[in-house]
Fold this protein.
Amino acid sequence: TGLRAKGVLADKGIAMDQQRFTDKVVIVTGAASGMGRASALRFGREGARVWCADINAEGAAETAVLINDVANDSRLRGVPLSEGVRNLICVPLMVGPDLIGVLSAYNKVDEAGFNEDDQRLLAIIAAQSAQVIERARLMEEEKAAAVLKRDVLMAEKIQIGLLPASAPTIECYDLAGATAPARQVGGDYYDFIDLGHKNWALALGDVSGKGLPASLLMANLQATLRGQAGVHESAAACVTWANRLLHGGTTPDKFATLFYGILDPNTHELVFCNAGHEPPLLLTFSAGVMNREALE
């Protein structure tokens, strides 16, 4: 009587799912216990209630456990039990081949103890309860997935807003930039930074990893680089200080490669610093033939 799901103890019964084993003692009997009597798998502090399951040699829950003389049952010898437990019956909560919990009743009002009819009834309740618990678990997973999807969509909008909406218009130059992440967000980075005096900084970077972690580091890289670009006139100094700041705020397994160049349209010079990125390519045409040169 008074059985409730999700590990809430009532008058004479309990249903415990797989994620409510904390602060409980689970009694495992059968071949998988590795001994002739029951073994106790202890989780948490002393004085916990008792649950049982009969486990076969493959480690799967097989049958119910019915014990009408807890104090003298040889299977429970040496197992710490809660005071006042006279008899108990436990049946597994199964979803397909998986044991997701145990449904238990103890201290039957009838002094004769539990019988096979009680076991059959509890098994029916357990079968239905297992499906209810599994549906509830799947619903929780679905809700969590929906929240994560909304968060990723918001992160995608934020990241798109961080990248340049369009390339600047510079006389004698055609500039363009685009990125297509493997997932909704990623670690690819490009930027056009107005340095004043008609000079522009051109940046191209790639953060290690994919997805949300990479997008967070990409945002950090962009903010750091833009902050340093306004302070340091040379490409080398800008990248050096950006590297120091990023290095101090990231773990060794997180890194980014970066090309950073300063274009002076007045002199038509591009001074750049390459921090581990692929070398830029200089394309020239001669007699209708395109020549490609990697700039180190």
Notes: The CA atoms of residues 187 and 216 lie 8 Å apart. Residues 1-51, 53-61 have pLDDT under 50 and may be disordered. The two ends are 79 Å apart (CA to CA).
